[in-house]
Amino acid sequence: MTIDLDMLMRVVMFLLSLGSPVFAWFIANGKATAAEINDVRRHAEEMFAKSNARDDACDKRLAEKDLRISKIEQDLQHIPNKDAVHRIELTIQKLQGDVEQATSQWRGVQTSIQRLEEYLVHMTVAPAATARAPRSRGK
């Protein structure tokens, strides 16, 4: 089969005539797609800007929370742990024992002071009574 140049030209022209509308349709859709792409791009940029604003707000809140947590951790370092509280309880119990011992010793001292006071009162009352009574001077 021999290919004639004239026949080849006709086939090419036929294919070009069929391809032109398809090419035009692709270009028209490409232009519409570019507009849609621009719309999507603008929408994405707006969403990105909103997202950045939310991220900034979240970062700010997170920094505030981090600062609060740091302050709480510092405060917790000064609070006694269970071992320290136990030592404090033992010390308080020891002090209570010491106070009870001192109280019992003071009761003894108080009793001695009361006896001494009674003796002194009795001694001052007794000489006054004997001083008032007439003495008999020999017979």
Layout of secondary structure:
Elements: H1 5-78, H2 82-132
Notes on the structure:
With 139 residues, the chain is mostly helical. It folds into 2 domains: 1-79; 82-131. The protein contains 2 helices and no strands. It has helices at 5-78, 82-132. The termini are far apart. The mean pLDDT is 86.
Short structural summary:
The protein is 90% helix and 0% strand. The protein has helices at residues 5-78, 82-132.
Q: How many strands, what sense, and barrel or not for the largest sheet? A: none
Q: What is the terminal-to-terminal distance? A: 193 Å
Coarse morphology: rod-shaped
Helical percentage: over 70%
Q: Approximately how much beta-strand content do the residues carry?
A: under 5%
The overall number of domains is 2
Query: What is the CA-based Rg, rounded?
Result: 57 Å
Helical run tally: 2
Number of E-type strands: 0
Low-confidence stretches: none
Features:
139 residues, mainly alpha, 2 domains, 2 helices
